[in-house]
C-alpha cells in the first residue's frame, strides 16, 4: 500500500513499526485507499456504508497504516477487557447508543478544546440494513463550523475511499440527500449506504 502524503494541518501520530505492519496486512488482503487527505485541522469524518464489523477493522488498519490521528465513536459494549484498552489507545470513545446523553454537546466541547481534531462517525449507527442515518454528525459539523469528510467502503473493489470535503448548509435535509447521493455507488459487505 502506497503511503498517501499527509498534509501538515491534519492530526497525525509518529511513524512506528505498527504502521508498516498494518500497511502490509492491508496489501496482503487486497485493500487500497483512494483519494487524498485534506489539509484541515478539524473534520467530522463519516464512514459508510456500515454493514459489517469488518468495516471497523479495515478502518483502524488504515488509520494506523497512514498515521492519521482520528478519534472515533463506538458502542460501549466493545470497550471491555483487552479490546477496550486497544480501542481506547487507537482513539476510541465509548458511547451509549440506547439513550441520548448529549453526545453532540460532548463532541462540540472536544472541538472547542482541541485545535486539531478529526472525529470519525458511522452515521448509520448500526450495521443493520435500512437504518436511518443519525444526524449528530451534521449538528456537530454545523456547531463547530468544520467540514464533513465522507469516507466510503466499497467491498467489490476492496477500496476505502476518501471523498471530497462537504460543507454543511442550513438545510439538513438537502445535505443528507447530497451525502446519500455521494454514497449511492458504493457497496458495503452486505448492503449499500
What is the fold's blueprint, element by element?
Blueprint: H1 17-28, E1 32-34, E2 42-48, H2 53-66, E3 70-75, H3 81-89, E4 92-95, H4 103-112, E5 117-121, H5 136-144, E6 148-154, E7 159-162, H6 172-183
Parallel strand pairs: 1-7, 2-5, 2-6, 3-4, 3-5
Antiparallel strand pairs: 6-7
Descriptive overview:
The protein has about 190 residues and is of the alpha/beta class. The protein is about 35% helix and about 20% strand. The protein contains 6 helices and 7 strands. Strands 1-7-6-2-5-3-4 form a 7-stranded mixed sheet, sandwiched between helices. Helix 3 (about 80-90) links the parallel strand 3 and strand 4. Helix 1 packs across helix 2 (about 55-65). The longest helix has 14 residues, at about 55-65. It is globular.
Average pLDDT rating? 88
Shape: globular
Give a count of the beta strands, DSSP E runs of length 2 or more.
7
Number of helices: 6
User: What can be said about the biggest beta sheet?
Assistant: 7 strands, mixed
Q: Element order, helices and strands?
A: HEEHEHEHEHEEH
**Poorly predicted runs of 5 or more residues:** none
What fraction, in percent, of the residue positions are helical? 25-40%
* Cα Rg: 16 Å
Structural class: alpha/beta
Strand order of the largest sheet: 1-7-6-2-5-3-4
Distance between the termini: 26 Å
Give the tags.
193 residues, alpha/beta, 34% helix
In short:
The chain has helices at residues 17-28, 53-66, 81-89, 103-112, 136-144, 172-183, and strands at 32-34, 42-48, 70-75, 92-95, 117-121, 148-154, 159-162. The chain contains 6 helices and 7 strands. The two termini are 26 Å apart.
Amino acid at each position: 500500500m502506497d503511503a498517501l502524503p499527509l498534509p501538515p494541518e491534519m492530526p497525525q501520530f509518529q511513524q512506528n513499526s505498527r504502521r508498516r505492519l498494518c500497511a502490509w496486512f492491508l496489501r496482503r488482503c487486497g485493500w487500497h485507499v483512494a483519494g487524498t487527505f485534506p489539509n484541515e485541522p478539524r473534520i467530522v469524518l463519516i464512514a459508510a456504508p456500515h454493514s459489517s464489523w469488518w468495516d471497523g477493522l479495515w478502518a483502524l488498519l488504515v488509520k494506523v497504516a497512514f498515521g492519521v490521528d482520528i478519534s472515533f465513536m463506538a458502542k460501549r459494549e466493545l470497550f471491555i477487557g483487552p479490546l477496550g484498552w486497544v480501542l481506547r489507545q487507537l482513539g476510541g470513545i465509548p458511547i451509549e447508543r440506547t439513550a441520548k446523553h448529549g453526545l453532540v454537546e460532548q463532541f462540540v466541547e472536544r472541538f472547542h478544546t482541541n485545535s486539531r481534531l478529526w472525529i470519525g462517525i458511522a452515521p448509520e449507527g448500526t450495521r443493520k440494513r435500512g437504518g436511518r442515518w443519525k444526524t449528530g454528525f451534521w449538528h456537530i459539523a454545523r456547531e463547530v463550523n468544520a467540514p464533513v469528510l465522507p469516507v466510503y467502503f466499497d467491498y467489490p473493489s476492496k477500496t476505502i475511499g476518501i471523498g471530497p470535503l462537504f460543507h454543511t448548509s442550513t438545510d439538513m435535509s438537502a445535505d443528507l440527500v447530497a451525502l446519500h447521493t455521494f454514497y449511492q455507488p458504493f457497496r458495503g459487505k452486505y448492503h449499500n449506504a
